[in-house]
Amino acid sequence: LTVNAPARSVPARPHLQTHATKPAQTNPPGLIVPTSKRLPFLSELTEFERMALQNADKARNGDGEALLALAIVASGDKRTMEDYTRYRDQLRRFVKRVKPNLARQKAGWKKGYFLHRQIQKHFLGNKKAHDLKHYDWNQSQLTVLLDSQRFNCISTAVLYTIIWRMLEMDIQGVILTSHSFVQVPVSAKKI
Predict the structure, then answer these.
(1) Helix, coil or strand: residue 99
(2) What pTM was computed for the model?
(3) Regarding beta strands 172-175 and 180-183, do their DSSP bridges make them parallel or antiparallel, or are they unpaired?
């Protein structure tokens, strides 16, 4: 920020609480006192957020539901165990529905394509391949994707990763300068 920068509207973040700052002499030693009269301060972690962070090792080891919990925390707008349970159950129902048809796909690339199309139809509202009607460059929150079908490359890569992990399938994330996506390693030559 610069001193002469114009003010701009910032979307409301319901999980941030605004508190008035106290005069410098009443603050504990070592506390940096901002010059503004009202600033957002993060609130205490909720039970769900503590659970998600405590299970970070499970997410690192491929647990899809632990990864889902971290993605919800990273979204920043849903903070309760009830929110997590709703999203988890939504993804579990999807996995249960696609699993039998996925098992019928013999070639690795067919499994990947089948799952890709099912995710596109179910979560992104895309009736045909590569439909971008719900694409939103600035929308990288998994929770918003699951609630509204609005997505970008980040939120979809996170969703794909979680679903693949819930199916105990291998998937790899790829990050470029201005894009991200996932790739599915398969042994077949046709991808």
Answers:
(1) helix
(2) 0.75
(3) antiparallel
Chain centroid, CA 15 distance in Å: 16
Q: Which of 58, 80, 91 is nearest to 160 (CA)?
A: 91
CA distance 158 to 88: 14
Nearest to 137 by CA among 81, 77, 180: 180
Say how far apart CA 151 and CA 82 lie, in whole Å: 23
| 135 vs 153: CA distance, rounded Å | 9
What's the rounded Cα separation, in Å, for the pair 75 and 170?
A: 24
| 82-108 CB burial, b ≥16 within 10 A, e <16 | ebbeebbeebeebbeebeeebeeeeeb
CB 38: neighbour CB atoms within 10 A?
A: 10
For residue 28, the one-letter residue type is P
**Angle 153-166/81-104 helices, nearest 10 degrees?**
70
Q: What is the pLDDT along the chain (191 residues), one digit of tens a residue?
A: 334 444 444 455 454 444 444 444 454 455 554 454 555 556 788 999 999 999 999 999 999 999 999 999 999 999 999 999 999 999 999 999 999 999 999 888 889 899 999 999 999 988 776 778 888 999 999 999 999 999 999 999 999 999 999 999 989 999 999 999 998 887 655 54
Q: Residue 89's Cα: distance from chain center in Å?
A: 16
132: helix, strand or coil: coil
